[in-house]
Design brief:
By secondary structure, the chain is an alpha/beta fold. It has helices spanning 3-16, 25-28, 182-188, 197-207, 214-217, 229-234, 239-242, 248-262, 267-290, 297-319, 328-346, 351-374, 381-402, and strands spanning 35-36, 57-59, 62-66, 69-73, 75-78, 86-88, 91-95, 98-102, 105-107, 130-133, 136-140, 154-155, 169-170, 225-226. The strands form 5 sheets. A 4-stranded mixed beta sheet has the order 1-8-7-13. The chain has a 3-stranded mixed beta sheet with strand order 2-5-14. It has a 3-stranded mixed beta sheet with strand order 10-11-12, with no helix packed on it. Strand 3 (62-66) and strand 4 (69-73) form a beta hairpin.
Length: 408
């Protein structure tokens, strides 16, 4: 083993002895956790996957470091921890004879990230891929890959890139030779949020995939970018599939939510659709557990056939003329389905968690249907209150599953 690698492993062990959780949130981004004696590889060149939905922000890929050297953490769309914050990417800098890793962080402004050109709005200074306007994020279509059918908060502003280099570190021989400007220095001292649990899950998963390690891929990782944390987890060795949002389950839930919201789907129809989705989600979960986290081609084909049949049933339920006037109970159920769709789309809700949430919603919807049938189509006050209590409990469970950091 070379002396530089021995030194780097010793420094990593020392750095990891200081846990991240022990540092104040506003200071954790500035702490030095990893120092390495040799430079990271060049940044891989890749296309940005399409944004999975409104509110997601792009976080560029980067080289992290572990016991066997550098490994690539794919660029990915994620939900920020709060409205109004932006992501400052991680970077490596040559300091005092070693390469020092500076973790990324969320804050009201983008700080210094070494002048590294990560692309897609991260030109080396600031971020030009989008901006917050009030409580909504607007995307710059000149650099961000956006589906304008599903994301309408867009604008066009041309971006001039000065640094076309793929160098992944600042300072030293061959590094990017820039220093923080006054604006970046001020941004570095603002209140910050650490990387979200979903982002940390994403990095941990990349570290477990040998094909992401530079010692294996010689600087050309199998997956350079992913549409979501979940899509990378589902397809760690297929860059084409990883670059597409894991939408099928989310789309079905979205259609159920739309049907309930518009009154085109009754509670009885929703209960049936939700039972079907719960069964499919549970099947996917069981197959993944049996196969070490992935699905075989045969299993994916089987799930796809079942979702095709479920899709046809949802279409019939939404177009059969059985309607119900918009009401508070159905709107609440529609909101729950929307939250599940969001969690599945982002990868924050696993298939097993989605199966449990769908079973809960199916039971509540069936209860609403039975009560309406017994009462000539209406719910009395006591029944509405009981359903609301059950939805409150279900809502808490959905929130927990969307924020427990497990990821798909």
């Amino acid at each position: 083993m070379s002396s530089s690698k021995s030194l780097s492993k010793l420094l990593i062990a020392t750095a990891l002895a200081l846990p991240l959780a022990a540092l104040p949130t506003a200071q954790a981004h500035a702490a030095v956790f990893i120092s390495v004696g040799f430079a990271p590889p060049a940044l891989p060149v890749y296309a940005q996957p399409i944004c999975p939905g409104p509110g997601y922000l792009w976080t560029p890929g980067y080289w992290a470091y572990g016991s066997d050297g550098y490994y690539w953490v794919p660029g990915v769309w994620v939900e920020p921890p709060a409205v109004g914050v932006l992501w400052t990417p991680a970077y490596w800098g040559w300091e005092s004879g070693v390469y020092v890793f500076h973790p990324g962080y969320w804050g009201p402004h983008v700080g210094f990230y070494g002048g590294i050109n990560y692309g897609f709005g991260y030109t080396g200074v600031g971020f030009l891929g989008g901006e917050w306007r009030g409580g909504a994020f607007f995307y710059n279509r000149s650099v961000a890959n956006i589906d304008v059918v599903h994301v309408t908060n867009v604008y066009v502003r041309n971006v001039t890139v000065v640094n076309h280099s793929t160098v992944a570190f600042n300072g030293g021989v061959g590094g990017v030779q820039v220093r923080p400007n006054s604006f970046e220095t001020a941004a570095m001292h603002e209140h910050h949020f650490d990387a979200t649990s979903n982002q940390m899950s994403h990095q941990s998963f990349a570290a477990q995939d040998r094909s992401q390690w530079a010692s294996f891929n010689h600087g050309r990782p199998t997956v350079s970018a992913a549409a979501s944390v979940g899509s990378f987890h589902d397809h760690p060795n297929n860059p084409g599939l990883a670059a597409h949002p894991n939408q099928r389950e989310a789309n079905q839930d979205q259609r159920i939510a739309n049907g309930l919201h518009d009154g085109q789907m009754t509670s009885g129809e929703a209960a049936r659709a939700e039972r079907t989705q719960a069964n499919i989600d549970q099947q996917v979960h069981n197959d993944r557990v049996a196969n070490g986290g992935t699905l075989t081609n045969q299993e994916r084909q089987q799930v796809n056939r079942e979702q095709n049949a479920a899709s046809r049933q949802i279409y019939r339920d939404n177009h059969n003329g059985n309607t119900i006037a918009p009401n508070e109970v159905n709107q609440r159920e529609a909101n729950q389905e929307q939250r599940m769709a969001n969690g599945e789309r982002s990868g924050q809700m696993t298939s097993g968690e989605a199966a449990r949430a769908q079973r809960n919603q199916s039971n509540i919807a069936q209860q609403a249907h039975n009560d309406r049938t017994a009462n000539g189509g209406a719910l009395n006050q006591q029944q509405r209150q009981q359903i609301n209590r059950e939805q409150n409990k279900a809502s808490g469970q959905i929130h927990q599953e969307n924020h427990n950091g497990k990821g798909r």
